[in-house]
Amino acid sequence: MNKAVVASLLAVASVASGARVAVAQTQVNLGSNAQQTSGGVQLAPAEYNDYTAAIAQTAPQAQATALEAFLTKYPQSQVKNDVLQRLMLAYSSINPPTPDSIAKTIDAADRLLQVDPNNVRAYTMKTYFNMTSADQTTDPAAKQAALDKAADAAQKGLAATKPNDMSEADFNTLKTAASPVFHRAIAAAALQKKDAATAITNLKANLSAAKPEETKTPGPLLQDTYTLAQAYYQSTPPDALNCAWYATRAASFAPEPYKTQMMPLAKYCYRKYHGAEDGFDALVTASQASLDPPANLSETIKPAPKPEDIVKQVIASTPDLSTLAISDKEFILQNGTP
């Protein structure tokens, strides 16, 4: 997922939080201790000045440092939720991301979830950056651990309920934007553990929620289509026909060099099911016209003969079985019926 998309997820519903802070700025109590009002939050002058100075920082690292200092000085601030959210965004905006900035982004998300357990933006950050950690490691155990953390955050993000201070429309918009991130993380963790069924369920959830034209555009949804093909190939037993369909569709719309990288799986699964490549061009045309295969796809593409069918054909067409090669006789003994 593009990092800019992650930042936009934070911005989707941060307007409400920012509005409350803005009200607080106009209602700051200059002569008494901080207090809650019906119109917003009131901050004492010193706290208000420190808050506005921190959020005025434009460089991500500088803002993160200032926000950390604010939280240390005012650990129970009424704007703690807002500050943690800004801190999470600041760390996530450090480019290029480093192991330290990734760890601090996740830590900020964890701290935010302690005060706001249903914060979808925090779950989105935990999901995305744990997946980033998984991508950056070659150690299988560390990769699986990071993917499992991403999947755990994703499951919690999908189950999060609407906060009282957020409108139904804003919450639905946020969940709609974040759900693809969650489903991809769950699918990635599942595939790493050879759980193809879970991966298929989550990838299809992403694709079915998108507009058909969006699934033809190079990007995450097209990658989901190819990953779905891989999941079908890893099924037990392998589903070669569905693998061929989704890999062919992904390769058809992918730009180079991805088209060349995807096409071998498409042709391999087609040959695995059909036994040869004849008719593959028809599959290319059909898959371009529809995201999902027709219900009668298995009737339109003849499956390759099974070993027992080959044995029957050889026996029926060979007058003198003693003339068969040793390897053919072994094949018959291994695969033929009594």
Describe the protein:
Strands 1-2 form a two-stranded antiparallel sheet. Among the domains are: 195-304, no CATH class; 305-338, no CATH class. Residues 12-39 have low confidence and may be disordered. With 338 residues, it is mostly helical. A hairpin with a 2-residue loop joins strand 1 and strand 2 (40-42). The chain contains 17 helices and 2 strands. The chain has helices at 3-12, 14-26, 45-55, 60-73, 80-92, 99-115, 120-135, 140-159, 168-192, 196-209, 220-233, 240-253, 258-274, 280-289, 297-300, 307-317, 326-335; strands spanning 35-37, 40-42. 35% of the residues are buried.
> What average pLDDT do the residues reach?
88
Q: Structural class from helices and strands?
A: mainly alpha
Instruction: Going across the biggest sheet, name each strand in turn.
Output: 1-2
Helix and strand pattern:
HHEEHHHHHHHHHHHHHHH
Question: How do the strands and helices of this protein lay out in sequence?
Answer:
Layout: H1 3-12, H2 14-26, E1 35-37, E2 40-42, H3 45-55, H4 60-73, H5 80-92, H6 99-115, H7 120-135, H8 140-159, H9 168-192, H10 196-209, H11 220-233, H12 240-253, H13 258-274, H14 280-289, H15 297-300, H16 307-317, H17 326-335
Antiparallel strand pairs: 1-2
